[in-house]
Amino acid sequence: IGEDVKPFTPEKAKEIVMSLQQPAVFCNMVGDWPALHWNAKHLSAVLDGKRIQFRLGLKTVDSVPQFETRCSYLKATLEEFLAWSCGQPSCLSGPFSCYEHSKYWAYADYKYIARIFEDKPEIFQDIRWSDFGFPGRSGEESTLWIGSEGANTPCHLDSYGCNLVLQVQGRKRWHLFPPGDTSFLYPTRIPYEESSIFSKVNVASPDLKHFPEFRNTTAHVVTLSPGQVLLVPRHWWHYVESIDPVTVSINSWIELDVDHEARVEEAITRMLVCAIKSAENPGDGDRWLNPTEDEATPHAVNLQYLNKAVSAYFKCQKADVPEQACSSS
Asked: Which residues form the JmjC domain (predicted)?
């Protein structure tokens, strides 16, 4: 195959993405994407001193997952982040000065590209998910992740869609577990985040005394390198860790028809979590909600979510069920 010929047509790539039930790494699919040049130095120049929020955690590995509720947060420029991650002495002042580079990692995670670069919409076209059979999907429907060595996301599954992840700079190690391993991963909804179900197990250092069933899991471990795209199928658990000094990745969640049912479940979960939280001591709030959730939403708002989710679910069911089957269902 010539260097500029991609191994899959957009139609074939989409067929794989929508039907494959195992994680897969696509190679040689994004060689002509301008986004491949989005290393942290390039992004620092594009952001031109704009401050973004970083999440900081300890590099020491504990048997308890480092949930986002246990992390510190600060705002800094990418320039300050890069100087700190290189261990430059200039970081004795500035936002990272309280966090020794040898002891902490930093992660600008889950940044909506449409929000971060809202004044530079032309940059959205650097990302071309059309090569995977999703025409019109660009950076506008994608998120950006920039981390230092050790930066990680606790093991969780996403309630909606499947996930395509492009590695741009550095390498990340993914520990993936199939949906069938769910009960062995001790799922929890606290900290609560809409659309994420966390595992109580720190899969990087499992406490088998407290979580003996974790022994029954089957981890699929993959190290994702620059230029590769990982497919995370629906409801696969994943723990992700940066293993190079600076990592940059871009992802997009692909909606699926089954998401309508998941949205009903998520709306009910939100209602229950908010109801229980409202009966709690207000001072305990930070242990319940993930920092990605601004606040507990009122019951009336939660009812609206549920009504909309149920309506969308039934509308989708009607569209899918042929006329003659309607009476039996």
From this structure: 105-269
Same domain, 262 and 310: yes
Per-residue exposure over 120-159, b if at least 16 CB sit within 10 Å of its own CB, e if not: eeebbebbbbebbbbeebbbbbbbbbbbbbbbbbbbbbbb
| Segment 127-186, tens digit of pLDDT | 999 999 999 999 999 999 999 999 999 999 999 999 999 999 999 999 999 999 999 999
pLDDT of residue 320: 67
Claim to verify: residue 95 and residue 235 sit in the same structural domain? yes
Are 284 and 234 part of one and the same domain? no
- 3-state secondary structure string, 149-201? CCCEEEEEEECCCEEEEEEEECCEEEEEECHHHHHHHCEEEEEEECCEEEECC
* Both structure tokens of 259: 């998401």
The CATH number of the domain where 231 resides is what? 2.60.120.650
The string over 263-299, giving b where at least 16 C-beta atoms fall within 10 Å of a residue's C-beta and e elsewhere, is bbebbebbbebbeebeeeeeeeeeebbbeebeebbee
Structural domain including 283 reads 258-320
